[in-house]
Design a protein that fits this description.
Shape: elongated
Radius of gyration: 48 Å
Order of helices and strands: HHHH
Number of strands: 0
Structural class: mainly alpha
Strand content: under 5%
Number of domains: 2
Number of helices: 4
Distance between the termini: 109 Å
Largest sheet: none
Helix content: over 70%
Length: 117
């Protein structure tokens, strides 16, 4: 184990030169990448300035549609049928009560005693 850690001075000198060359090559590469990054940022800034100079098209809302006038069909569907339905429901409840009074003796007795008002 001690022998593995021990290096000859000639080997260290050769490794130092090799490491120095690798560090120099990496430094050149990093500088080239930094220049490329700066160019890309400049292009992006130029595109942003160009796109900011062009105004976005204005969105024009559609003109308001004319209000529909109350036609006979609208009035018939919205008001008249509704009122006719309410009147028919009232008549049917009255008829049901009368029918029960005539045909169901238990219901009649309950009504006389005041239970089903």
């Amino acid at each position: 184990m001690g022998q593995e850690e021990f290096h000859e001075p000639a080997e260290l000198h050769g490794n130092d030169a090799k490491l120095t060359a690798e560090v120099a090559a990496l430094s050149v590469r990093v500088e080239a990448l930094e220049r490329e990054l700066a160019e890309l940022r400049d292009r992006k800034d130029n595109r942003t300035v160009e796109s900011a100079a062009v105004p976005a098209p204005a969105i024009v809302p559609p003109p308001p549609s004319p209000s529909p006038q109350a036609s006979f069909e609208n009035k018939l569907g919205a008001q008249i049928f509704n009122r006719v339905g309410v009147i028919l429901m009232a008549i049917s409840f009255a008829y049901q009560k009368d029918w029960l009074a005539l045909r169901d003796p238990a219901w009649r007795a309950d009504q006389r005693s005041g239970g089903g008002q």
